[in-house]
Write a structure and sequence with these properties.
By secondary structure, this protein is an alpha+beta fold. The protein has helices at residues 17-26, 54-94, and strands at residues 5-11, 31-37, 41-48.
Length: 102
């Protein structure tokens, strides 16, 4: 049985390399990934274990693309909610004795 490799390109204007790496980590038990970034495109080559057949590789490719979108949206939400989360944390820690009044 020959190992299968599948290539996927992502637009750098839409997805970050960090998002793609986080997504790839979720599938570390199924495939390894080779990344190559140009100015416009992040090319990913998914290298599947020899035990993965073509049909399974295609399914995993589609699931990986969904995971990239999911991680991208998580990153966007984290950026949007950062001020609120910092305010909540500041308020929570202001009620503790971690910081002594001067």
């Amino acid at each position: 049985m020959t190992a299968i490799s599948v290539k996927i390109d992502f637009d750098c204007k839409i997805f970050s390399i960090e998002t793609i790496k986080k997504s790839a980590y979720r599938y570390i038990d199924k495939f390894s990934i080779d990344l190559h970034q140009t100015q416009d495109v992040i090319s990913c080559t998914l290298n599947f274990d020899k035990k993965i057949n073509t049909e399974s590789a295609e399914l995993l490719k589609e699931n990986f693309k969904k995971e990239v979108l999911d991680q991208d949206l998580r990153e966007s939400i984290a950026k949007e909610t950062l001020p609120i989360r910092n305010l909540i944390l500041a308020h929570a820690f202001s009620k503790t004795s971690l910081i002594k009044d001067g």
